[in-house]
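Support request, please re-run this one:
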Amino acid sequence: MSFMAGNTAVENSRALAQSALPNAPQEPYDEPPRRIAALRTRLGTALRSAAARELRLADRLDPSPSCAN
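Re-run finished. Output below.
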């Protein structure tokens, strides 16, 4: 099983919310099927790669720092 960023935060917030309301109904957490998880991982990788290319292109077009006064 691979680690996916965000799952831990979601699980922690769910556990905190459920511990704050001890009489609240507990909802079971179902892991997404492996095929969907793998697709989500590949899609995230592709989007990060595209964003990195966009930033490199933007730096070539305008290499001045964007935070300059």
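The radius of gyration is 20 Å. The mean pLDDT is 76.
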